[in-house]
Design goal:
With about 300 residues, the protein is an alpha/beta fold. It contains eleven helices and 14 strands. Helix 5 packs parallel to helix 6. The longest helix has 18 residues. The mean pLDDT is about 90.
Amino acid sequence: MIVSVENLTRRYGTRSALGGVSFQVREREIFGVLGPNGGGKSTLFRILATLLAPSSGAASVAGYDVERQPAQVRRRIGVVFQSQSLDKKLTVFENLRAQGHLFAMHGHVLAERIDEVAQRLGLADRRNDLVDTLSGGLRRRVEIAKGLLHRPEVLLMDEPSTGLDPGARRELWQYIEELRDRQGITVLVTTHILDEADRADRILLLHQGKVVAEGAPAELKSRIGGDVVILDVDEPARLLPELRARFGVEAVAENGSLRVEIGNGHRFIAEAVEAFPGEIHSVALHKPTLEDVFLDETGARLT
C-alpha cells in the first residue's frame, strides 16, 4: 500500500479533530475522503502533507513515516491546497520555475520538466500569461502542474474544485483520471461534493474525526438496497408507527418528511398514498446516493 494510516489521532486542546482513523490506499487509484466541513478532512490532509504532526498513531507514504521522515515524504508527494498557492503577479512559467527551485531543480532539467507538465495539462500556450489573467479552471491546472513538477508518486488534493464552476470541475476530474490512467499516479483527494466522490475508486466517509464507512462508491450504496422514498406529510411522528405496522418498514422523520428505504419504491408509494388518503402531500423517489449512506451511518447530512 502506498499510503497507510493507522489509528491516527489529532487533538487541539480538549477537542479531537481525528479520533483513531485507519485506512490504506493502493497504488494507481483515486482515493476520496468524503465528509462535511469540520469533519476532519483538512486535518488528515495536513498530516499526510507533513504540515501537522499527529497526536498519536502513524501514517506513511511510499514507506516513509510522515512524522519521523518528512523530507523523504515530501520528495514523493505533490500537494494541491484548497486555497490558492500561486503568485498572481508572476507568469505560469515563473510560478513553475519557482516551484522547481524548491526541489533543487535547475537549468535544462527544470526547463524540460516545465515544458512536459505544461504540455500535459494544456498550459503550453499560456506559459507566459500572468496567473492573474487566468480563469479559475486554468489556475487549478497550474496548481496541479506545480504538484507534478518533481514527478511525485502520490498527489494530495484538498477540496481541489473549490471556487470552480461545474464545467471547470468536470474538466478537473478528467485530468485527475488521466493522471491515474496514463501516468500511474496515486491521487488522494478530500471533498464534500457527492458527484466528485462518486468518481473515486474507493472512498472513506469521515464524520467528526472518525471513519464511518469505507469502500467503492457502488459498494457503499448497495448496502442500502432498493429505493429511497421521501413522503411529505403533516404529522411525521404520528405516521411512523402506522407505516411500521402496515408495511413493516422503519421510516425516519426529518424536516417534516418521512424517509423510507425499501425495495420497489414505486409500488410502495402507490400503496402508501392509498393507505393514508389526504395525508401524503407529495412524494420523491431516488436510488441510493452517498448522501443516503452518510445519513444512514451518522444520522447527519453532508451539507
